[in-house]
User: What shape does this take?
Amino acid sequence: MLGQMMQQPLLISTLIVHAERHHPEREIVSRRVEGDIHRTTYKELASRSRRMAKALARLGVKAGDRVATLAWNGYRHMELYYAVSGSGAVLHTVNPRLHPDQIVYIADHAEDQVLFFDLTFLPLVAAVAGRTKTVRHWVAMSDRAHVPAEAAAKIPGLLFYEDLVAAEDDRYDWPSFDENSASSLCYTSGTTGNPKGVLYSHRSTLLHTFAAALPDALNCSANDVILPVVPMFHVNAWGLPYVACLTGAKMVYPGAALDGKSLYELFENEQVTVSAGVPTVWQGLLAYVQANGLKFSSMRRTVIGGSACPPAMLRTFGDEFDVHVLHAWGMTEMSPLGTVCSFKPAHLKQTQEQRYEVMAKQGRAVFGVDMKIVDEAGQELAFGGEASGDLLVSGPWIVTEYFKGEGGNPLVTDEAGRGWFPTGDVAKIDADGYMQITDRSKDVIKSGGEWIGSIDLENIAMAHPAVAMAACIAAPHPKWDERPLLVVVKKPGAEVTREELLAFFDGKIAKWWTPDDVVFVDAIPLGATGKMQKNKLREQFKDHKLPTA
Ligand code: ADP
Assistant: This one.
């Protein structure tokens, strides 16, 4: 017997329709690449999205065609989120921090038809425009007046965003189609090998949006003012531009200015309540507010994920600024949300100290995501055990295969025939279901056949007052195969010796986990999404002679 409820496909366009109808006057504020602060509303944003949808049709974009962006967080980018996906085309957000060769590779692989870009990326676009195979139109996300004629001349047939919008009216009905249709495409950052595409659907995006907004997930409401620092080219800014319309929250977009001073000004001027970003960006902001003796007057919580949030950082946010950190974990292949570290009732009775220990874990599964850890034989390990295992996930917003079948079938099938995606992370899950990443499988340090969790070691090093950034990598060892080598960037003006740092580990971990050596460097290479590139460090220190070797 079938249920008797309305059959309506879950489509991304329904989000913008809802926001326009129920939160028309709520603001969207953007720091523009043009240099000013721009203000608009959901009503205006919805109208311009419809105009842009018409403009795309006029450019010959059809359902399923890929439309790319090279853009910062801003209102025009958000308009494209809705105009492109809502009209049935596929929004391909390209990470502008990738090497131009990789951008050409990705644009060709995705067969992008149109590419929209922020003015910052004019030189990049001029460099790649003659090399891509399928892009028919290049659109500068600005008006004509802001694009220097000389630069524009380097891009044949350049179009201007504001011209396209101005040429259309907003009488447009969002089309209805199968909710399983592709909506957007993100490539993994490709720290090893060529990037692979993950193709989201309208259905997966909507389900992810419902789950992401929940109180025990990102906890967003109409009363919030949300500033996503996480870029809209990095897994759809963790879904926040969709959560925005679902909740009717005020949105604040920082554009290209991600330094501590610019962010802080925006947080205060717009009275931001919630933010989200990777740990490295918070370092800059915290350093700025600490150096200037400032406080956050409105910010209540921030989501930190993408790589492990050092416990020292969540304490600084909590103790010094009264900002609650929501530690979250996910990946491009998971849209991205997998777990969020929000409390259960028992935690509310605990001391702040005990709670910080919980908060350092990546958290419990958001409804919709099932997760388990398995041993080397693929046997599931029970929650609450001491051992770590490979982390596998399953759910309606998790990838089944990469775009164009790249890399073959990534899934592992269990005895019941259910497919699980191996995350490549190594984790523990406690009795309450809180998952803690101990490593990425390719970053694991294997000493005498036993794993050493590099994230634990980095977290300890990062708690030292003189340490700005720390990476722990495997260095070759004749007896133990591998031993931990700590690579450290000191805070400006701070001093610490190798011996002092090694002594700092005493009593905090098993003795044999203590790194064998420390090297000080000026900088640790960061990838396109702000993560430490440990593969580069391993390459750099592959001949490092450990004093114990
Ligand atoms: P890529 O895999 O290309 O680096 P993603 O942004 O999809 O790009 O990264 C997903 C990976 O990032 C996860 O598999 C995990 O290793 C790491 N990660 C994400 N969030 C966290 C977190 N809170 N703690 C530790 N690692 C994290």
Observations:
- The mean pLDDT is 95.
